[in-house]
């Protein structure tokens, strides 16, 4: 399906909330599975956060996964004036959480940037608390609201559109998550297809707030429909 | 001051949110400082939680400080059907938090009991996240609301009154925390004096919701006033 999109001349951007690896590693894994994808075709929370940090002159204290740290290599991290929180996994230690908290509470107006708001996810050895839970802990302790980079943030889809160089009405989002994918893309002015695979649940079709522009059975069918209308 | 209260024949109950030690250890420390206090004169969150667990037939999975575990010695902890969260300090590891989360998310209706809702506190080596922050993390991940045992919960002050065997209108609370002490005691029907020591801040006198029945400069003055009115 990816190949057919590219062969048709359409531009493509993969939007992922992956924050346990750099885009380079993420792309390497996809290429190993046979997907023809380049780093420039991936929008991920860490690069979006880096853009935000640069724009606002913010120097982060990082509480992220070790494998994500290289994404912030070019960013000045001396004398931090904000905290960037990702799915730090084993780095979510009592000491690291207290340290991130102390950086925040020491600021006149704490700035907390979170690379997502997920509640939990499943790994081979069981369910794990996701970044959103730790975000809530720090929000409560510091009485602040985090700025969330990543789906479903409008700014995240806007930066994907900026990469593509197209306005929202000329773009279409295909995704399996009713809120993070469909809701986020629509709020940004894009049309959105929900695939009935992956995270999709039949109950999504009765979601109280979000309704995709159309449902498709899978990615191949989404591509069929899009290419037919060109 | 404690001695004068006791000598007058008034009953006394110390209400603490301490959850890093058993009441036995807490009382041992106070006695070492010269205070004539017995375990029966202390109301603390863990014994209040034990009462609640027994009343509702709940078997806790504990995420608490090692030193607090003996408070739950008599409680059946097999095949847990709730999680009890205290200020676990070094026990707030990634693995322990995931484990508590898995116990909760595995229940049809997760029951989370928190021994407080504090945001943070200060120790000699710096500020630390308190139990409330971890409570918020688990609340968000499981989409539940914790039941808070400890100040300012109404049930906590009620159990102190039950220990004293007096109705709220015959009791008076003396404390330094405008919300946890004064607010909680008043919600329970007690009169409440705020001392201008400890956690007291001048801004407390403009608190939007809570107004003590009177201010006193310190505990000794509070006792003077109370004894004069006997």
UniProtKB/TrEMBL annotation, chains A, B:
SUPFAM superfamilies: HAD-like. The keyword Nucleus applies. GO terms for cellular component: cytosol; nucleus. Keywords: Cytoplasm, Hydrolase, Magnesium, Metal-binding, Nucleus. Its cofactor is Mg(2+). Signal peptide: none annotated. It is found in: Cytoplasm; Nucleus. CDD domains: HAD_PPase. It holds the Pfam family Hydrolase_6. Its EC number is 3.6.1.1. It is an enzyme of class 3 (hydrolase). It catalyses: diphosphate + H2O = 2 phosphate + H(+). It comes from the Eukaryota. One of its GO terms (molecular function) is phosphatase activity. Belongs to the HAD-like hydrolase superfamily. Phosphatase that hydrolyzes imidodiphosphate, 3-phosphohistidine and 6-phospholysine. Has broad substrate specificity and can also hydrolyze inorganic diphosphate, but with lower efficiency. NCBIfam families: HAD-SF-IIA-hyp3. This is Phospholysine phosphohistidine inorganic pyrophosphate phosphatase. It comes from Climacteris rufus. The gene is Lhpp.
């Amino acid at each position: 399906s990816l190949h057919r999109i590219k062969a048709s001349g359409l531009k493509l951007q993969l939007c992922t909330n992956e924050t346990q690896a750099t885009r380079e590693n993420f792309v390497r894994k996809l290429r190993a599975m046979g997907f023809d994808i380049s780093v420039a075709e991936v929008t991920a929370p860490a690069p979006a956060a880096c853009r935000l940090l640069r724009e606002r002159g913010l120097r982060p204290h990082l509480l992220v996964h070790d494998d994500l740290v290289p994404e912030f290599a070019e960013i000045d991290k001396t004398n931090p004036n904000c905290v960037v929180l990702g799915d730090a996994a084993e780095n979510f230690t009592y000491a690291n959480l207290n340290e991130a908290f102390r950086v925040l509470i020491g600021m006149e107006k704490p700035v907390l940037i979170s690379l997502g708001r997920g509640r939990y996810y499943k790994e081979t050895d069981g369910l794990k608390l996701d970044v959103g839970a730790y975000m809530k802990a720090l929000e409560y302790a510091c009485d602040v609201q985090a700025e969330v980079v990543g789906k479903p943030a409008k700014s995240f889809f806007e930066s994907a559109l900026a990469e593509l160089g197209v306005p929202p009405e000329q773009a279409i989002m295909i995704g399996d998550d009713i809120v993070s994918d469909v809701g986020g893309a629509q709020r940004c002015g894009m049309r959105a297809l929900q695939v009935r695979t992956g995270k999709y649940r039949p109950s999504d079709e009765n979601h109280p707030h979000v309704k995709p522009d159309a449902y498709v059975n899978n990615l191949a069918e989404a591509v069929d429909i899009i290419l037919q209308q060109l």
